[in-house]
Amino acid sequence: MCLHIPPCPSADAPDREAARTVVCHPEQGWSLLCNGVVVFEDTGELLPDGTTIPPHRPTGHHQRQERVPSTPAPTPVRTLEEVPA
Predict the structure, then answer these.
(1) Do the beta carbons of residue 2 and residue 11 sit within 8 Å?
(2) Which residues partner with 45 through β-bridges?
(3) 31-40 average pLDDT score
(4) How far is CA 77 from its chain centroid?
(5) Which of 11, 45, 60, 79 has the greatest count of CB atoms below 10 A from its CB?
(6) Are 8 and 20 in contact (CB under 8 A)?
(7) Does pTM top 0.85 for this prediction?
(8) Cα–Cα dist 28/36, whole Å
């Protein structure tokens, strides 16, 4: 039972990752939350009932695709013959 005020979300709540961390092992890549959920650095989760949740957020380890800015079409250049007198 969570004794935090306000209480941490339960393990089956959609916002379960908002529970407070009670044990953290960054060298091993996991943390235990107050609600019994084990979260991994790749955003995967292990729920108290043994259910696994696959990684579900970008981790920043993936190579970014650079967006190429759109360039406007060049403005046609007028020759002296085309310029009105």
Answers:
(1) no
(2) 39, 53
(3) 96
(4) 48
(5) 45
(6) yes
(7) no
(8) 17
Residues in the chain: 85
Contact in structure between 62 and 79 (CB atoms under 8 Å): no
pLDDT value of position 78: 65
Q: Hey, which residues does 31 pair with through a beta bridge?
A: 24, 39
Q: Is the pLDDT of residue 33 over 80?
A: yes
Choose among 26, 22, 52: nearest CA to 35. Answer: 22
Higher-pLDDT residue of 50, 3: 50
Residue 61: pLDDT over 70: no
Going from the C-alpha of 41 to that of each of 2, 3, 11, 29, 54, the distances in angstroms are 23, 26, 18, 5, 12
Looking at residue 53, what is its pLDDT? Answer: 92
